Amino acid sequence: MFIGEVIGNVWGTRKHKSLCDRRLLLVRPIDPLTEKPLGDAQMAVEYGTGAGPGSIVLVMDEGGSARSVLKDEAAPIRTVIVGVVDSVSSGGKVHRYE
């Protein structure tokens, strides 16, 4: 799992049948306390969280677990957005997202 920022939408003219009613978003991993980027962006399936560009999100980044969240073992996915993050607390520091 990682915390990331949604930086865009992804559109596909053809999708696997298990993704037809799902939104695809582009998510960049960030340091949860400084919000500095930690790597390259990757595509993730949005799963009822209401996340969109600018949202700070919790991302499940493991194929088997991501498919379990969607309740579809045949889905060709690796990453799924499982929550929108309001704040992070670490080492006595709290960082709130707006």
Task: Map the helices and strands.
Layout: E1 2-10, E2 23-29, E3 42-46, E4 56-61, H1 63-70, E5 79-84, E6 87-90, E7 93-96
Parallel strand pairs: 3-5
Antiparallel strand pairs: 1-2, 1-4, 2-3, 4-5, 6-7
Residue fraction in strands: 35-45%
According to CATH, the fold-level topology is OB fold (Dihydrolipoamide Acetyltransferase, E2P)
Tell me the span between the first and last alpha carbons: 21 Å
Contiguous runs where pLDDT drops below 50 for at least 5 residues:
none
Overview features:
7 strands; two-stranded antiparallel sheet; 42% strand; mainly beta; elongated; OB fold (Dihydrolipoamide Acetyltransferase, E2P)
Could you explain the architecture of this structure?
The protein is mainly beta and 98 residues long. The protein has one helix at 63-70, and strands at residues 2-10, 23-29, 42-46, 56-61, 79-84, 87-90, 93-96. A hairpin with a 2-residue loop joins strand 6 (87-90) and strand 7. The longest helix has 8 residues, at 63-70.
Short description:
This protein has one helix spanning 63-70, and strands at 2-10, 23-29, 42-46, 56-61, 79-84, 87-90, 93-96. The chain has 98 residues and is mainly β. The chain is elongated and about 45 Å long.
